[in-house]
Design a protein that fits this description.
The protein is of the alpha/beta class and 210 residues long. Helices cover 34% and strands 28% of the residues. The protein is built from 5 helices and 9 strands.
């Protein structure tokens, strides 16, 4: 669509991830996936941070899977992403010894924060009709997955990310991201408020006329 919105996505590629030579191809793949519904203006910034981790949820037995600590993230990662709509912190395996999630999306009114844990070249697979089907590079699939969470949140819709991505049909999220519909809803809310404000302003001007 001609009126597709543009979102500025800043990818902070930490340590080893900042040296990946495949970033141009990865960016193109992420942009191509979401091109039917939006334009992603992607920039990649190498960082040299030492992430701190905190438990996210139990995995098996008494063990946990970990995430980048949110307070640490806000204090150390976000300053690199000034002006971005969405920030994605890419953490390679060499940055952690604890078992980490595939990724995580955190929402706020000001900024959408995501983390992706991946190496450069591995691929991820989904079980489709009893067969393991290659979904593409892990870093790209996980990035698209976390962006899907973000977009569902933006549109205040039921999040079907896991339903579609884990079934090997990630493209099914796209018809649910109607940003023009969101804009229409905003206009429907704001225009009556503006009309009421103008009516009140005219009434005030009329009573103040000598």
């Amino acid at each position: 669509m001609e009126n597709n919105p543009t979102f500025k996505l800043t990818i902070l590629a930490n340590n080893e991830a900042g040296t990946w030579t495949s970033w141009s191809a990865k960016k193109a793949a992420i942009q191509a996936f979401y091109a039917p519904v939006c334009t992603l203006d992607i920039s990649v910034i190498p960082t040299h941070l030492t992430p701190q981790f905190s438990p996210y949820e139990p995995a098996s037995g008494s063990s946990f899977v970990y995430r980048v600590d949110e307070t640490w993230y806000e204090e150390n990662v976000l300053p690199y992403a000034e002006g971005a709509d969405i920030v994605m912190f890419v953490v390679p395996p060499t940055d952690h010894t604890v078992v980490c999630m595939m990724g995580l999306a955190v929402y706020s009114d000001q900024l959408k924060e995501t983390t992706v844990f991946s190496d450069e070249i591995s691929h991820t697979y989904a079980n489709v009709n009893g067969q393991n089907v290659d979904q593409g590079e892990t870093a790209v699939v996980y990035a698209c997955h976390e962006l899907s969470h973000i977009f569902y949140d933006m549109l205040a819709k039921t999040d079907n990310t896991h339903q579609y991505f884990f079934a090997g049909t990630p493209q099914k999220v796209l018809p649910e991201f109607d940003f023009n519909e969101q804009l229409l809803t905003w206009y429907q809310k704001v225009i009556p408020e503006m009309q009421a404000w103008l009516t009140a302003l005219k009434a005030r001007q009329a009573t103040s006329t000598p």
